[in-house]
Structures are given as C-alpha cells and as structure tokens.
Amino acid sequence: MRGWKTLPVLVVLLFSSSTSFAAGFRLPEAGAKAMGMGFAFTAQADDPSAIYFNPAGLTQLKGQNVMLGLTYLRENGGEFTGTTPLTGGASVSETQKDLNFYIPNAYYTRTTNSGNVSYGVGIFAPFGLGQEYEDANTSIFRNQITKIDLQTVVVNPTIAFKVGEILSVGAGIDWMYGKAELDKTPVVPGVGNLYNLDLDGDGDAWGYNIGLLLKPIANLRIGANYRSKFNLKIEDADVEVRNINSTVPFVPPGVTAAAAFGGTSFDTKGNAKIYVPATFALGVAYTMGRLTVEADADWTFWDSFSSLPIDIRNNVGSLLPDTNAPKNWNNVVAFRVGAEYRVTDPLALRAGFVFDPSPVPAATMGPELPDADKLHYAVGAGYKIGNVTIDGAFLYIDKKDRTVNNQNNTAGTGFNGTWTGDAWLAGLDVGYHF
Predict the structure, then answer these.
(1) Mean of the pLDDT values across residues 73-77?
(2) Which H or E element spans position 35?
(3) How far apart are CA 17 and CA 403, in angstroms?
(4) CA–CA separation, 147 vs 135, rounded Å?
(5) Which of these ranges, 65-79, 194-208, 257-271, 327-341, has the smallest mean pLDDT?
(6) Judging by beta carbons within 10 Å of its beta carbon (0-12, 13-18, 19+), is residue 385 exposed, middle or buried?
(7) Residue 256 confidence (pLDDT)
(8) 252 cis-preceded (ω within 30 degrees of 0)
(9) 59 — phi, psi (to 5°)?
(10) Which domains, ranges and CATH numbers included, belong to the chain?
C-alpha cells in the first residue's frame, strides 16, 4: 500500500467507524461540543471541528490548536416483525445483532499573528453503514444481505480568510478512503442455501468543501457550509464464495452448483461504486450574555444515491450475477437546535434536539438499511483547565417504528412488516491551545 494512504487506513482499521443511525448512512459525529448542541454548530463553529462544520469559523481561533476525540455508539439491534420471501407467508420476528462502533476525529489548526488567515487539517468519519444478522445460514434476509459494513475516513486540509470584521470564508480539499464488506447467502427456492458470499474491498475518492461566516451585528452569527459528493469506487475487491451446495442442480440439467463452480469454494474479484451525497448546512447563532442559542437546517442530497452497482468478475452463469439494486433515495433536510450556557468561564453546559428524516423510500428499502425518521436528544458539557479543553456529550436516538410493504417473491427481495430500533452515543474530545 502506498505510504500516503497509511494514516487514514490505520484510522479506519483501528476505529471501524461504521453505523447507520443518522439520515441514511451519514455520520455528523465530528466533535463533542457540536454533538452536545445537537450538531447545531454551523454558525458557532468556534473550536477545531470547524474544519468539518464550517471552515470559515477557523478565523475565530487563536494561535495553534490540537484536538483529538472519539465517539462511542451503541446500536441496539433493530427488530423486524413480518414476512420476507423466505418465510413462506408466515409472519416471524428477527433481530439484528447489537453492535458497538467507535467514531474518531482529529484536528490541527493554526491562525497567523494577524488573525486574517487560518489553516489546518482534519481527520473524521463522515459516512458509515453497519448491519449484521444473527446467522448467515438461517436469517430470513440471508438471500438479500447478512452483513454490510461501510467504513470511511476523510483527510481534509483547510484554509480560511478573514475578509473583514463581518465576513470570513473557508475552503478545503477532501480525500476519502473507504472499506466495504457485503455478505449474503443466496437461496434456491425449495432446495436450500446456494453458497455464502463475502465481498471485501477498499477504494478512495476526492471532494471539496467551502464555508462562510457572517457577523452582521454584535452577538449574531450566520454560517453556511457545503461539502461535495464523493463517488467512492471499490475496485479489485476480494470475492469469496464458500460452502457451495453440492446438490443444487444447475443448467444444463444434471450439473450441480458445486460442479459449475469447480468445487465447494471459489475466489474471484469484484467492483462496486457507492455514491456518497453532497451536504449543505445553514445556521444562525445568537449570544445573550452567557447563553448562546443556534438553529440549523442541514440538507443531504441523497438523490445521488440512485443505485448500488456491484460487478463480479468470472461470473459462473446465473449463479454469481452482477447486481445494480435501485435505491432512488430522496433529498432530506434535518432541523437542529442547540444551546450553550457558560456557567463560569471554565464551565459550559449544553443541550440540543434534532429532527432527522429518513431519505429511504418504502419502495426500495432493504434489510441493509431499514431506515426511519429519528429524533435526537443531546446533552453535553465543556471545561477548560489552563490550555486544555475537555468536551463531553451524550446523545440518544429514538428511531420511529416504520412499516413497509415492498416484498417481491419473484425477485426474492423486500419484506412486508415493521421495524423498530434505537441507539445511544457518548463522545469525548480533548483539545490543547499553544
């Protein structure tokens, strides 16, 4: 592996930052201070995580700053009650595995002595997806998915300029590295499992971000932040086919699947493309004495996620087909409100709320991401000790029940039933000012 990839690859491998408890598979957990305010931070943007939330906010910082953080996420396995193409019309229940994830962030910033130019670099995990079902050989979803894991990390060098007392602007270049894994167990109706398939690979993509910060009057800040989409290409992924059924017949008649594959195992390569959406946030913050309140509207342009193409090389007839599952997700806007009260100069208390609508239409929703509208409830605190700042936050995500009826027995996709689920997160950042 080329040396310039080493750092982000290590971050991905160490922290395995994948989940699904945001709109679609977006992860806004890029800073504990922002999380404590329900991510309503586009206009405030006054710590090193401004690189993610609004790069123009870097001009508010002084000197040099380093911040390291980690968010722990507990995803309580979603529970499904209903039917799938494999249940024979009977209503059953299945629960996903409870999963634990760790979402990292790291920032370095520097502001020149004039205060007019700031620059730095951020490392964070803005998107991720993780679901896993209990048993790859018996799950009622096994012909569609038994495990999916998307891990991303972005390295984002950034620069910001203070144009005047009213306006600051910022911009950055984003390099994304991603790892993806997909497991499933195709089923031959009336016969049984065909094989266990595992696709595992990585890739990268480039993007950019821009932001601005306005201070039209004292105590009022208006911020905007845009992040471009990524077309993440997973190339030369390892595809392992195991436990090939030695009795399932294949065309021509009399040839078994095992004979068609040349044995009970088979290795090949594959490609996939994941369309990671652009985002835009607009926020307004107002300070009244020791209290700061902010409201944000945050758009995610999920219309770019129109499909999930997977190309497998050396296809063995119809036993190992390529797929291009339609997704056709909708653009959504999340609404965020947050507040910070500075009890004393060192101590600040925070709270926030988010309405986070799902972009996933009922017609194309699958077991890889049984998404629903969510409500986020956040609290947090910050404390300064000399040049050290410690920020902590706790967030509970209430995922609304969602009933979908999109089962297609002919294609072997979809389900008819209801999903439930929830999650909670705890984040901690430690910063140092030079």
Answers:
(1) 85
(2) helix 32-36
(3) 28
(4) 10
(5) 257-271
(6) exposed
(7) 82
(8) yes
(9) -70, -10
(10) 3-433 (2.40.160.60)
